[in-house]
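Q&A log
Question type: sequence-to-structure
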Amino acid sequence: MPKVRVNDIEMYYEIHGKGTPLVHIGGLAGDARTWQRQIEHLARHYRVLAFDNRGTGRTDCPDVPYSTRLFANDTVGLMDAVGIERAHIYGISMGGGIVQEVAINHPTRALGLVINCSFAKMDRYGARVTENIMNVYKAQGPQEAARHMTLFCYTLPYFNSHKDEIDAKEKMIGDAKRPAHAFIQSTLACVGHDARSRLGQIKMPTLVNCGTEDTWCSASCSQELARLIPGAKLKLYPDSSHFFLNEHFDQSMADILAFLGSVQVAA
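Response status: OK
Response body:
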């Protein structure tokens, strides 16, 4: 699969499907492989650009400060490199923070926004979870950090009843091949993200999604996002946690596709 020079790094990317472009931005949990099921489903309807963020997977991992704005500049630089002028911008968790920065700083590049399990600024609990995961990564390495992380990604009933799925997800997250400095910089980018005073600048149609039982990026964080983004729609998925996109795969994909289909795209 291809790589391309973007800013100061070589970025790994994949393009799936045909049609209106959709840029898929992952979060702290691994690289693009983490959301392959969702990417393949979206690619039935859109031309999906998926990639590994700086600091993870097959993209370069420079030892410099990271921020959601830097990630957003990488995203737009990648769009330039592959010839995408405008696209729906879709992000998960930290990726939702990156979506916000794309919309605020590069507003002409976005058609519609989908912000999943994210935050305008992490609440105290979410920041503590993120810092604890970072400390596990530093002390015990990526595999143990992945095993710790998934405790905050699924509800207790789902975690207990989907062992094979979650074991595979942990392995994928733990195998993302990033040095400790890159994971640390990514966690600091999450904790440092704060777009609250700027979200009123966002003018494009926006869908905000979250699981009601998400403790890492709580439903109250998504409610705040929807309140601060003019005209944003909010969808809460009952009895699901941070990875509601797995726990409610069919319904969440249907809702996202319905929203994207309602966004008017100029010919």
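Response note: The chain has eleven helices and eight strands.
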